[in-house]
Amino acid sequence: MNYIRPLEFSCCSLSARLLKGGRLGPGFGSRLYFHAQAGEGLSGLALRAPGGVVYPLFGESPRAQDSQLAGLAEFATRKITAAIGLEDDVRRLERAAGITSAAGNDYRLMRLDKPRQGGAASRVFFQQREFKIRPPQSSDMIALLRLQEAYEREEVLVHLHRFDPRVCKAGVKRSLEEEVMLCAQLDGRLVGKAQTNARGFAWDQLGGIYVEPLYRGRGLGRALVGELCAALGAQGRSLCLFVKKGNQAALGLYLSLGFEEAGSFRISYYS
Questions:
Q1: Residue 192 contacts residue 183 (beta carbons within 8 Å)
Q2: Which residues pair with 186 in a beta bridge?
Q3: Residue 162, phi then psi, degrees to nearest 5
Q4: Residue 25 near residue 16 (C-beta atoms within 8 A)
Q5: Which has the closest alpha carbon to 110: 269, 247, 15?
Q6: Tens of pLDDT along 44-90?
Q7: How far is 250 from 196, CA to CA, in rounded Å?
Q8: 3 state SS of 11
């Protein structure tokens, strides 16, 4: 969609859902709302995914049209569980719908246009210990579940949520089937992972990035993410991600790999 492509770095989760199964369309169980001005084409849209997660992309649409654009008459009668997008768009959605988040996280949105550098892993040295970065294998499932649970507890879950091992396992299986993932192995044990969590038209969104605390600050995370960036860049992909505003270590890592800040991002959760 011509409207989405120049904004895709800010809405990769939305565009990936429009390409579900490789076909253009909102996908089973999703609803797509849009606002088009006469003679000017599409000016904003919102996607409501199964489970009540809303992805607003209001762009330059008139704020007076927010209610019409987002289909908020329906939103008001059907439970919204979360809203994910640029902070301004999420706030517009909340004001127009008359809803208030019960919890949420604020992030820095970051982008990297078609990375070309690689080789980060070859420069990492762990006192002659066996270290390598590799794709996941079928035998890694237990280790990946351990890393994913730790990631969710540290980075994702808010006080409204409880960790659900079934949801965690389903998410890891989906990632192995649909996403690009690399693992960091030290002395035969997985100690970190990095992956895409949404693949759009031209942009891939990185997520699920986790290194065990014992191995942070030693270059392992930079090597892992650097290898993933290089692999995706070799496919001609551009990259985006969002990082919590207070996470200075992660912010420094992404800046060192060439990412640039591209705005404020938010995930709001509703009770």
A1: yes
A2: 131, 189
A3: -120, 145
A4: no
A5: 247
A6: 888 888 888 999 998 877 777 777 665 655 665 567 889 999 999 99
A7: 16
A8: coil
Tell me the pLDDT tens digit for each residue of 232-249.
999 999 999 999 999 999
CA quadruple 88, 90, 95, 97: dihedral positive or negative?
positive
Distance CA 111, CA 13 (A): 14
SS3 readout for 135-171: CCCHHHHHHHHHHHHHHHHHHHCCCCCCCCHHHHHHH
Q: Tell me the backbone φ, ψ of residue 154, rounded to 5 degrees.
A: -85, -35
pTM, two decimals, is 0.89
- Look up residue 118 and give its amino acid: G
Token look-up 């590799």 returns 134
The interaxial angle of helices 141-151 and 165-178, nearest 10 deg, is 110
Give, to the nearest 10 degrees, the angle between helix 248-256 and helix 220-233: 50
Tell me the pLDDT tens digit for each residue of 91-123. Answer: 998 888 888 999 999 999 999 998 866 545 545
Length reported for the chain: 271
Residue partners of 164: CB distance under 8 A and separation at least 6:
none
DSSP 259: -
